[in-house]
Amino acid sequence: MANTIIITGANGSLAIPTIAHLLQRLPDSTLVLTVRDASDRDANTKYLRSTIAKHPKAHTSIRELDLSRLTAVHDFARSIVAEIAAGTLPRLSAIVCTVFYWNLVDPVQFTDDGYEKTMQVNYLSHVALVLQLISSFQSHGGRIVLFTGDSHEPGKNALDKVPPAISSDPAQLDQLVNPGADASNDALGHGMYRYANSKLALVLFTHALNRRLQQNTELRNITAIVMNPGNLAHSRAMLVNTPYKLVFLRKFVLRPLLPLLKMTDPTARIAAAAAIDVARLATNEAHPGERGYFTLLKPDQGSEASRDEMTQEALWLKNVLWVGLTSKDLILVRKSVA
């Protein structure tokens, strides 16, 4: 059956091997691949095109989408909805949100929407995208795959200086997207805290989303998964907005010593291995009908804070306000904004 899979951050370290796997296994699927810069001036987009070119009969389109602009996200979502309604795109079977952003070298940054950039790119824009596209899934359901990591759990990540924490107090929740100036010059510590909170928010959102999907007779066959794909030693993320000492660590320690690292961290692996798991989850081949938190391909729990239902619900109410959704956008948010 014809279907569409949307992948954000499609020219990333994890996304490209995922796409290669999907093209090989599902040649009849349509892949809508979003990148910030769709031109070949971006070396990563050029590499994405060369990957697609190996499958000349594939149904793919590369589209620009800047997740630091909510208007761009809304416009993209509305375009997809319209194309599916018109029959020019098959209905959705999966949304895979691989976009990654952090900044560990600069003070806090804000988007033109006025939100802290890490939280908007990693979290808010994916919330806006997912919620607007749910009604365009196939009638028999599909998968939403979001990504977290061990950083969302205090004490699990070596770069953790300030433990991630999200309050259920609405007033404090606003500080996630509108924080004040950094309290010190420790760009690495503050940047990692913001990144970890964006990953914690994704886990909280996934649980709140799944409750609503299960309660909706038309949408209950859509399952949301938030996945820790492992510590990816070859990820380009370690080269962007990253202190030189981490760039050095990636090149001379993490990559060459990966077999040894696996002895102390069983989640350490290369992106190509993680990509196979992502593709299997996105297509419901792995754990069909299951939902929730996964570490690699194993159902897991995530941090204790991420399982707090009061915080999940408080964050959900803020989501629809932050991203500008109203009752006309989606049935899942109607009660939230009533």
TrEMBL record:
<dbReference type="GO" id="GO:0005741">
    <property type="term" value="C:mitochondrial outer membrane"/>
</dbReference>
<protein>
    <submittedName>
        <fullName>NAD(P)-binding protein</fullName>
    </submittedName>
</protein>
<dbReference type="GO" id="GO:0005811">
    <property type="term" value="C:lipid droplet"/>
</dbReference>
<dbReference type="InterPro" id="IPR036291">
    <property type="entry name" value="NAD(P)-bd_dom_sf"/>
</dbReference>
<dbReference type="GO" id="GO:0005789">
    <property type="term" value="C:endoplasmic reticulum membrane"/>
</dbReference>
<dbReference type="InterPro" id="IPR051593">
    <property type="entry name" value="Ergosterol_Biosynth_ERG27"/>
</dbReference>
<dbReference type="GO" id="GO:0000253">
    <property type="term" value="F:3-beta-hydroxysteroid 3-dehydrogenase (NADP+) activity"/>
</dbReference>
